[in-house]
Amino acid sequence: MLSLARTNTTFALLTALVCFTGCGDGCGGDETPPEGGGGTTTVSTTGGGGAGGMGGTGGVEEGGAGGTLMCESNEGVTFALTQLSFGEGNNGQWKTVGRNLDGLVSDGKSTDVCQPNSGGNPDTAYPDGDAGIDNSFGKNLLPIILGLSPMWPTAVNTALDEGRFNAMLKVYCLPETGNAQLITKVFGGTNLGATPKYDGTDLWPVAPEILGDPMDPESSTLVFENSSVSGSTFNSGADETFILAIPMTYMGQTASLKLTLYHAQITMDLSEDRKSATGGVIGGVLNTEELIDQVKKVAFMADLCDGATYQSILTAVRQTSDIMADGTQDPSQTCDGISFGVHFEMSEVQLGDVGPAAPLGNACP
């Protein structure tokens, strides 16, 4: 992906993997709200709905307390990433990116946090960012890639501009105005094969890896059953799980790099027409050993399976662990998660057909 020495390439691809996926999410919506006063609309769909409890007969209750809004089962707006921001900069910009996942404000002297992984120093994993924001990725892994390739964030956003990858959220039955409780699904986007317009007309091929039915592009298994819109703010709900597979090619080899983000939450500010979003924030936790498994794939492609360099890479990644994988802290346990945060913007696209599956690839032992 980047023209660097083999060791540097491994770190660069690792960081790209984390950032691509961590933000692997988008949002949107479209539907007519119930008449009457304010309140929250509960959405019900007609027809077959797939995962997430979609389906039923629904109806519309008019009145000041809100009501139930009926729409077709696959009706909604799909948002795709248009920009990612990782908190790059030399003045602690990472401190504002992400969420306070564990409810604590921690530093290297804290006694209510998990124990360092692989002999790490607590001052590596901590302190937290502003107001307890947990983002060890931004604090520890992002500076590595920026030191090796200062233009890396630009390269990531260029890939979005060119349609080489994406991650999308489809918000089903989102009303044009008003508040609503909603169903939202996550989708991976394969190579579009053209420059995206991001005007609602792009038919983005859907990655099959997270589909329940590989023939049905709407059948994502990643469903936010408690997502909502309040005013202009979309909220995925807390404690969600994201799984994204990122195809990657290096030195003539290909692999599908899978990233799972636990205890995650997405928020974003919808535009007035609810066709785009700014101010997006995602925060969650990467399971350290699951990330290590993906690093081993990258190391295999870079021919780095043997020797001290390979082991030092794995150790360095483990030492950035700052939280438990379930988003909690336990002073009696070794940290097994790496907190992650990213900011993003999104615009409307359409789900296309199911695209080709990415090769799984090989991994170092």
Secondary structure blueprint with pairings:
Layout: H1 6-22, E1 40-46, E2 68-72, E3 76-85, H2 122-125, H3 136-148, H4 152-161, E4 166-172, E5 179-189, E6 203-206, E7 223-230, E8 233-235, E9 240-250, E10 253-270, E11 276-287, H5 288-301, H6 308-318, E12 337-354
Helix pairs in contact: 1-3, 1-5, 5-6
List keywords for this structure.
365 residues; alpha+beta; 6 helices; globular; disordered N terminus
Description:
There is one protein chain. The chain is an alpha+beta fold and 365 residues long. It has one domain. The protein is 19% helix and 31% strand. The chain is built from 6 helices and 12 strands. It has helices spanning 6-22, 122-125, 136-148, 152-161, 288-301, 308-318, and strands at 40-46, 68-72, 76-85, 166-172, 179-189, 203-206, 223-230, 233-235, 240-250, 253-270, 276-287, 337-354. The chain has an 8-stranded antiparallel β-barrel with strand order 3-4-5-7-8-10-11-12, surrounded by 4 helices. A hairpin with a 2-residue loop joins strand 7 (223-230) and strand 8. Helix 1 (6-22) crosses helix 5 (288-301) and helix 5 packs antiparallel against helix 6. The two termini are 23 Å apart.
